[in-house]
């Protein structure tokens, strides 16, 4: 065996699939032998340095199927030819951002071999390192997990002596665009010259050559001979596996070999292996395998995707949407099958809502197109509209020793409930299921069990509902109260509840002053405190409990002392005693007049009375709540001032004393009219207290809003030529005033035009609507020359003066570019902003003394271009 490259490059990750097949050529030259042409097709990644895995020859190892024993030496197959299979990004204009990296170099190796006819047949294997790196559905490194490609030749026990077999020929095109999160189709279909029946399924990919195959030979990319079967599966990354290599939304049609579904959301490589079972005369004779890496790309196709049918069992107002996202600008046209008008929408996923007028099964059609009409797709589905389907069930039972009875209570407005599927949630067995309508089940363990019922109607409505039940070691026994108080003249009904029990039997003791002790609700009238005990028996499952009835001859009631509150404040009234029910009056100013300690909000001084009761016994009491108004505080109206200005506050009070906070920016803070001088917006709080009974202060706030400093800007100093119109542009406020008026067309606008014949300095006053203002100036130098761009011939970076190399545009309305180059032709500085220049640094480093080339271009105020170039000396 000859390899082109060294051991290290041999381990490059380029394998993207393979297929080993055979063709029967006829009887061998020796009796009892047969000739076969063994063919290997390797899928190699187009975009890697694929010489790293270019093998001149490959070994085919033959094993006897009966005992996996190697037969002879491996057959050495030479490289025959190579073809390139790639996806054309321009082949489908209906895919946005089409993939450009879907490409396989298909390498073919063939070798004729002669084998003795064997009862059990043969397995032929080829192993190789290494799969392409970063495979999404495989754990670990592709260096560790290579590939095994194999084929099986059936023996004479499987096929009669006169019959032979050929591998199926897979005919699908391998370079297919698969877009993340979108519907796709991949053709694994095959034709069979022997006319055998083919059955397709997704299966495990095998690992092969590389470190995991032979720990002592990490640099053995092609084991010779190959390891004997059986072969290990590659380690799939959860949630993927062989039957679900791209997730549970992707499947293969067992009859056609077409893979369809919704691609994973994560882009990248996915190993997909298909096993094709050959049946002849209803007998399995062979399983053919093909392994390929499919690429999920970040593209977006135009596709109409709907499920085969939809059941709408809740409402006539139903929602439809496409099964995947489409390119922006897609238009969706819906036809609902009920004779109503079509809907045309551009919403996300084409989502629409439609109101059906009646029940029925409707054929719904969806047509999608892009704005230019070049790309279209359509599909249809069935909408089964039968609303009013509400799954529900109830259960009776509570004890481990007794059965639980479940009752279906599903409501179906249309049709009838026709199918039931119960899961009782008993984790100790696998037989906790039932398909009868109202089953009975006895649990094998204690604890909370989640019972799930799935029901289906005769109109196809399907629903699932779950309830948690508790399996206990004794029946449920509950009491609304277990300790209560009555008056000696009263009769009380005791209550015991046994929720979920099938056949509860109650027994109360003692028999002292009790009526109907064999019921869950006996009546008692004890004259002294008594504890009544109850025993619950549910088919031998027993529980017990008790209720204590305390007896008094009269009601005790003590009232809180009278109190004083600030007017509009709430006050909580309080009682002490053993009363069970209360009734307060007057009730209008009470939040709840029937509790022991209600909240009162009186509008004036009020006396509240209360009646406290225990059954037929009662007691009365009262409490007075005096109200005093809050102190009055008015801090004055809010104000607005300019930055670094002062204003006077003006407050009034109704109280004994007051304070201001904060005081750090107040003059005379002990008066009602202090002066405020805040530098930022400040809220001043006036607090007033009194001495006439209300213990709480009155407060009010005045906000002094401080406008920020006016940022007056008249514009950057500039240079012009004589009589060149110069458009000024001041900013920073709302009102502008320029001076002097020399050469200006206006003085009260932010952007006047100046025409000058000599140097001029303008000042502008910039003010806000509150008359906060500031000044700025602009100096204009007037050249008595034609428009030009003046450029210095030397500069000294880092010095106090002449440290920046910049052009001086005169009469130039727009600087198109100013660029500086070093002697190697590298541009070291570029700008189109007048006034900017180069400081002599490249990548933050000052340059040494040297000569640099500059070019500059601008447009003068007449529209004429000015272009100049030259050199400048950088002096250090």
From TrEMBL:
Pfam families: CHU_C, PKD_4. CDD domains: PKD (cd00146). SUPFAM superfamilies: PKD domain. Gene3D superfamilies: Immunoglobulins. SMART domains: PKD. PROSITE patterns: PKD. Residues 301-366, 420-471 form the PKD domain. Coiled coil: none annotated. This is PKD domain-containing protein. It comes from Flavihumibacter petaseus NBRC 106054.
